[in-house]
Every structure is written in structure tokens, then in C-alpha cells.
Amino acid sequence: MKGITALFLxxxxxxxxxxxxxxxxxxxxxxxxEPQMDEEGNDAYPAPKSGMADRGRRVYAANxxxxxxxxxxxxxxxASDIERxxxxxxxxxxxxxxxxxxxxGKMRMGPDLSNIGKRAPVEDENAPPPASVASPAAAxxxxxxxxxxxxxxxxxxxxxxxxxxxxxxxxxxPPTSPAPANPSAGLGNPPGAASPSPTPAAGSSSPASxxxxxxxxxxxxxNAPVTPTTxxxxxxxxxxxxxxTAPSGEPIPYSAAWHHRHLYSPRSVVxxxxxxxxxxxxxxxxxxxxxxxxxxxxxKNDTPPEGTEIVPTYDAKCLVAYxxxxxxxxxxxxxxxxxxxxPPAPGKGTK
Amino acid sequence: xxxxxxxxxMKKFEKNAEMxxxxxxxxxxxxxxxxxxxxxxxxxxxxxxxxxxxxERGQS
Amino acid sequence: MTPADIPLKPPATPVASSESxxxxxxxxxxxxxxxxxxxxxxxxMFYSSALVWLLIGTALAGFTSxxxxxxxxxxxxxxxxxGRVRPAHMNVMVFGWASMAGIGTAIWLMARLSRxxxxxxxxxxxxxxxxxxxxxxxxxxxxxxxxxxxxxxEMPPYAAAVLFIAYTLVVSWAVLMFRFRRxxxxxxxxxxxxxxxxxxPWMYGVAQIMLFVVPVQGVMQAAVTWWFANNLLFLWFxxxxxxxxxxxxxxxxxxxxxxxxxxxxxxxxxxxxASWTGMQRLVDGPFPAWMITASIAATILTIIPVATVGLNxxxxxxxxxxxxRYSPTxxxxxxxxxxxxxxxxxxxxxxxxxxxxFLHFTQASVGYSxxxxxxxxxxxxxxxxxxxxxxxxxxxxxxxxxxKLHFWSSAYGVGLMVLMLVVGGVTQGANMDNASMAFSESxxxxxxxxxxxxxxxxxxxxxxxxFAYHFGLMLLGxxxxxxxxxxxxxxxxxxxEPHS
Lengths: 351, 60, 500
Prior knowledge:
Strand order of the largest sheet of chain A: 1-2
Order of helices and strands of chain B: HH
Radius of gyration of chain B: 22 Å
Oligomer: heterotrimer
Largest sheet of chain A: 2 strands, antiparallel
Helix content of chain B: 25-40%
């Protein structure tokens, strides 16, 4: 039997070797990271996702979004992810601290989503970060690279910036349905949303409060929509909803309304998309006394029959909340924004 | 262990390759030749030759 | 080599031949027949289940492929959404078809090589039943929305547990068989099979523990997932496939493996390097670079075992390539062995950072997976089934034309699929890397190739339906009656006509 002992030991040994090398040792290195904090112990990044966004992650995983979308930005010297404005810096292990399951992805039939929440229009990031300047606009202004604009060949949508300031409604709009004065009181505000990080709470509170405005459907959006920049600074007011639609009436790319419309009917916002629609995440119901705040504004063949409207289910809202929370733009000490070299640090993310 | 022992050991080790054969299916005797009459590309000609033979039941 | 050169021997006549008493050959034949008969129930059960899953998985593959270029087709139903159908297809193929076919073949090989009749067949029957249940629960769970979100491990925990029970039954049986083997020699196939049967529960158990029981943090989850996925591919499927090829090729030809030492070196280097390749799927990802580099290096080093295996098979077959005309087993197995080399070299190529820049995140990786799981593993399994099934049901395969149809539609099907996905992937990747092009152009550019892939899928569907039908005939006892009792011999009762 001594032949088999050697065989057995060899089989076990080779296995143990790879387990030790690829799992055990890296787990010591990057498996026990903590959020990064500044000297006062504030501005912890990353933060765990709030209730709706967390559930949204489950919806994302259950519906296999990971099989077409990645959530990892590669370094600029190795790939063109940063050039495509999918992130301001490469992704690092610390970015995924609280993700479960981690949804890095391995296929890009659709764009990378690691910073899709960051690329949303400003109104959705309206919870002022405690340690930094109050205005979300300033925060946005300090990160101009958040605008995805990969192609000069792309036609831009009607309105990157000229969305009207708070309080102005586009003409011919019916009174916007009970868009709550305080976005944080909107539907779907998760309890405990006030986390130190700027994005999670904001993302989850606004989707439901965006009223889609009736206006004539105009231009179809281009393939790579552009986020508005810093114009919409007075974002805290109620009519955040209004300023999130371009003058043409189309939802601004990567806003919550845009996500809902995109999930319901991808080809109505991105013409060449081959993404399937997720209509089972939406419900059709008859319009009550007035249209629901979060009813989708749809065009052409998607328009529901007279007297009915399409509203997102709770899962849809959670999914969009999750998407709006995806933001890796916060700087990390171990990741240089542009230079390749990095000081060795726990969880070193660069070469 | 001497070199001769080592060589003997190695030869014995090589013998393992022969364990899948036995007297009934010895070395040199192919097994599993399913379609001995089948040639992939010369069917037409083959049919003429083979038609003089009684066809096996079920062979298509 | 003409058929006339194939050394012939007269079929062994039954025992009551005039002079001598029972010869050793007769004893061996009866023994072998007994061994084969003892494996009949479990092996046929695993094979039948595997083929049912193959058909289901092929249907799911059709959905997956078509929906990529016709996304609105049947998209309103939650359990038919692409994002659920795709992992369902993969899990059905990996755990339903491939694993069960692999176990079936391994059972027969273990019994033959242990030279002992199969003990405790009910253990295996129970294992098969649990395995089927596990896959059913798992796939149902995925379609219902319970996917775990981890690639290659999407089956929800309730299904994974059932599968693990099934597995434990199988591995206990395998260890017992090995323990009670007869004869002093261990054959290389037994090394591979024993390895596979031990590695699988360890890798599966470790993955389940590190993801669900004592979960690791952050990106380590991805490291665990891809370590598992590559281990499954190499140390479970690769090991079973290689072990099977090492038995089938020499056995069909009637010639021992060219160099047994080379085979041993190939086994150990494979075991050592292949399990380190997992991170190749995460090139340039958020990990310490040393992990990725280690996997790339390991992938390159797997060229050593691949070369030894390729050399061994080639030298074993040298002078006998003509037999590919006559043996479906040889044909499928050699196709698989060649595909294994191609698969490995391609794996090295796509792991290199300079190439990964263009091919990572494209459909090329789907092509790579299919090269491994279909062009190599599935084809070797088909070959083994062509050899083993007649020995279990006591009949020959009935229709040579169906065998040919099966082979060519599989060969062209997978060849076309891999071609479409790799060429398409290159186009997709080049466009994706070029930041001056809109991202959607990269997706646009691969759509024609995806349509071509759907076409290849139709070929594969034909192939699988044909084989399942043919296998069904065998199960029903409708195979061709053999003119000789145990195995096929080119000399049949009409006498053997040399071809021109």
C-alpha cells in the first residue's frame, strides 16, 4: 500500500499548496481590511450599503447582471477603462470591503458599472458629506472627471448642464405629482440612511421621488450619455425632479428615472443596446386620481394603454438604489490617481 | 541502491503501462473497431464490393 | 495502414472447445464480463441522467445564445431572463451533463482497473439520485431568482448541500474500490481518477466554507470563486478527461502508452501547476499583482504537462492513425486530446497581460471555457461512452451513420463556436480598448459572431439529439447483436475483406 500513500500525499499536497498560496496568504494580506479614515476618524470609505441598496445588490446578483457588466476599473497603463471615464482611478481591494457577493464581473457586453452612481446627475448626491464642504456641487466640482465623455463622435443629449435651477418647471408640464419637498422623505428612504459616505443614502432616496415630467419625446439619447456637470447646484429643493430631465423631457442619463426607463426598455434609451428588458420588475396599474410619482415615462411602443401607468416594484427601486450607490471615486491612499507606482500598503491595489 | 537496481525499478515502473492488457485483449490486438467495413470517403465504390456480402442486420 | 495490417485474432470461442480446459484467457474474459455486468446499473444510470441533462442544457444554451442577439425574445418572464438562463445553462452542463458523464465513465474505469467487481452498487445509485435532485434544485433555484451571484457556484446552498451528500457517497465508493483493488500495478488513469475524486470535494467544500460558512471579505470572494472554477476545470474535469484518454487510446489501439514515466511526470506537474491558475480570470483586477502574476506563470508552466500528454498520445498512436477510421472511441478521444492542447495554449495566450488587454471581458473567454468543457472534456466523454455502453448492454451501436453524424456535427459545431467567439472576441476587445470608439460599438461588433455562434449551437443540438436517440436505442436493447461475445473484432462472421 505504500504506493498509494505517496499518491495520496501528493494529491493532497499539491492541492494544499495552491490553497495556501492563492487563498490563505492573500487572505492575510487583503482579507481583513478596514475602511480608510482620515485623522479625525471621519470620512470612512467605503461604507456598507444601506437597506435598499443592499437588497438591490441581491436583485442584481439574482438576475445575472454580473454576466454582462463588470464593476472593476483597470489601471490606465493597462487598459482604457479610465480613459472611458468609467472611473477616476483603478479599483482597489478596499473598494469592495463590504460587498457580498462581490460582483466584479468578467464580461462586458455592457459598460463597466463601478462608478455608475457617481456619474449620475448631481441631484442624486444630495446628502452633504460631513467632513467636506457642504455643497454637493463643490464635491462634484472637485471631481470633474466624473463626466463620462468617451467619444467626441457621440452626439450629446439635449442638456448636459442647462437643466433649470430649482423651482422652474418646464412648460406644459402637469403639476408634478407629490414630489416630496424633502428628497430624503421620498419613497424608499431607507432607515439609517445617513451614513458618513455621501452616496448611499442619497442614491436610495431620490429614485422614487423623481417625478417624470410629461413632455414630448424628443431626441433619442446617444450611446454614451453625458452627465450634467456642476450646474444644478441648488439641488436640495423639491423640484430636484424637474431639473433631472433635459428640456427635451428625456431623463438625464444615469439618473434614477433613466435607470428605470433603461431597465424597462433598454432600446428606448440606448438604441443599439442588446440588453434584455426587465419588465417583470415593473407593474402595470391603472392611474389613480393622479399619476404616481415614480411612474415611468415611456415612449412609442412601450407606452402603456390609456389610463394605465408603469411603476417600479420594490425590487426595481432597490436595484436602482444599488446602481445609484456604486461609486468608487473616493480617493484611496494606496491608489495613485495617475502614477503607476504605489507605496506598499495593506491592500495595495497597484503594481 | 545500485544503478542496476534503479534501472530495474524504472523498467518495472514502465510495466504499469501494460496492465490494461491481458491475455484476452493482449497487446497488439485493437479493440473497439466498430465500423471495420466503413470507409468515410469511398462509400460508392465500397457499396459495390460489399453488396456481394450479406449485410449485417441493422447496419446502415 | 490498411485493415489487412490490423493483427487479427479469431474470436474466442466459448469454453466448450474440444481440447484443453478453461484457459486463463477465458477466465479473464468471464471476469471482465462479470466486472462489466456489475457496473451496469450505476453507470447506465449516471449516463442516462447525464444525457437528459445534456438535452436540457442544450435547450438552455439555445436560449442563452439567441437572447444575446434577440434580447426581447421571451424576456418578460422572470425565470427566462437572460441573466438567469445563462447560469442555469452553465450549471446544468457542468454539474448535470459533464460531471455525471464523468462519474459514469470513472465508475467503469475504476472497476476495470481495480480488477474487481463493483461493490456496493446501491451507494452509487443513491448518489446518482441525490446528484440529480441537487442539480434540479440548483437549476430551479437559479431560474427562480436564488442564484448566489458567484460564478460557477450559483447554486443556492440548499442545492449545494444535496450535491455534496451525493458527492460524499461517490467518493466513499471510489476510495473503497481503490482500497480493495487487485493486482500490484496502479495505472496512470487511476492516479488521475483518484486525484479527481479527492480534489473535487476538497475544492467544493473549501469554496462553500470560504464563501458561506466563514465568509471571506471583499475581493477575496472573487479569488475563492475563480480558484474554484479553474480547479473544477482542471482538477476535476481535466483529470477525468486525461485519465480517460490515457486508458482509451492505448486500449483501442492495442498498444501501451509510449512512455509511462512521461505520463507520471505529466500527472505531477499538472497537479502542481494547474491548481495555481485561477487568478488568470482576474487579470488586472483589484488584487495584489503577485497573485495574478503567479497564476499567469502557472498557466505558462502548464505547457509542461500539456506537452508531455500530447507527446505521449502522439507517440502511442504513431503508425496507427489509420484506426481513426474505424473506432468512434478513438476518433472522439483523439479529437478531445488535440483540443486539450489547443485549449491549454489558448489559455496561456489569453492570460498574458498584453493579450488580456484586448481579450479580457470579451466573448473569447466563453470560447475558452467551451474549448475546455466541450471540445476536450465532452468529446472525450462521448468517446468513452461509445466504448463502454456496448460492454454494458451486450450490444453494438446500431447505426454507423448516426455515429458519423454525431461526430461531425459536434466537431463542426464546437469548432465553429470557438472560432466565432474568439474572432468576435478579438474584434470586441479591440473596439473596447479603443476609447475613441463608443462602448456600444464593441457590443455591436460582436453581434454577427453571436449569430454565427447560434448557428453552431444548432449543429450541436442535432448532435446531442442524435446521440441521445442512439443511446436510447441501446438502453432498450435495440443495439446490433454482436457476432462475438465481448468486444468488437474486425473479423466478423462473413470474413474480413481487405479494402482496396
